[in-house]
Write a structure and sequence with these properties.
transferase, 195 residues, 30% strand, seven-stranded mixed sheet, globular, cytoplasm, 5 helices, Aminopeptidase, alpha+beta, N-acetyltransferase activity, YpeA/RimI_acetyltransf
Length: 195
């Protein structure tokens, strides 16, 4: 299958039209294309293939617009802790709630795996991503100096603890409800524009 990432989403695109699915080999061409856009040191096709060969300690999802990969996220885990390895959305599809929906699925998967805490790194200057993660209960836990290159920048280490608690489940349910409501409003606006 050939995956094209040159098109832009329809201006009336709603996040509700995007599906979140487990990552499969057939998605990797699109995943690698997004990874090359998003990272100064992108993962290779071989690295992603290796990750998919470890289903007992890895979980990856893709966001699809019809059959085109427009985003992906990954989680690796050991014991009761997980690490979000990457989360990226094709530039033309950003600000549609796709990263939030992928993160929601990733955190639900972390809970199903019996994890109690999840960590991630984010650029110190990426306030939008930090705000998203804070909504999921992630809080700063340290700095990795000069972690990123091109441009050279520190990483903020963030942690979400007690993700197996009732309170955290309620947090995720609230995020899911708000996301669904936002998608319904977007669909209504799109239908109103068509009249």
């Amino acid at each position: 299958m050939t995956v094209s990432l040159t098109g832009s989403p329809d201006s009336a695109l709603s996040s509700s039209l995007i599906t979140i699915s487990p990552m499969r080999r057939r998605h990797l061409r699109g995943v690698v294309a997004i990874e090359q856009q998003a990272s100064s040191h992108p993962w290779s096709l071989g690295l992603f293939l290796g990750e998919l060969r470890m289903p007992t300690s890895r979980s990856y999802v893709v966001a699809l617009d019809r059959h085109v990969v427009v985003g992906f996220s990954g989680l690796m885990y050991t014991g009761d802790e997980g690490h979000i390895t990457n989360i990226a959305v094709q530039p033309d599809y950003r600000r549609l709630g796709i990263a939030q929906r992928m993160l929601l699925g990733t955190m639900r998967q972390a809970i199903l795996q019996g994890l109690t805490a999840v960590t991630l790194e984010v650029r110190a200057s990426n306030e939008a991503a930090q705000k998203l993660y804070q909504g999921f209960g992630f809080a700063p836990g340290g700095i990795r100096h000069k972690y990123y290159s091109d441009p050279r920048e520190d990483a903020l280490i963030m942690w979400a603890h007690d993700i197996n608690s009732t309170g955290y489940d309620q947090r995720l349910s609230g995020i899911e409800s708000a996301s669904q409501q936002q998608a319904r409003l977007g669909d209504q606006a799109r239908l109103g524009d068509a009249e």
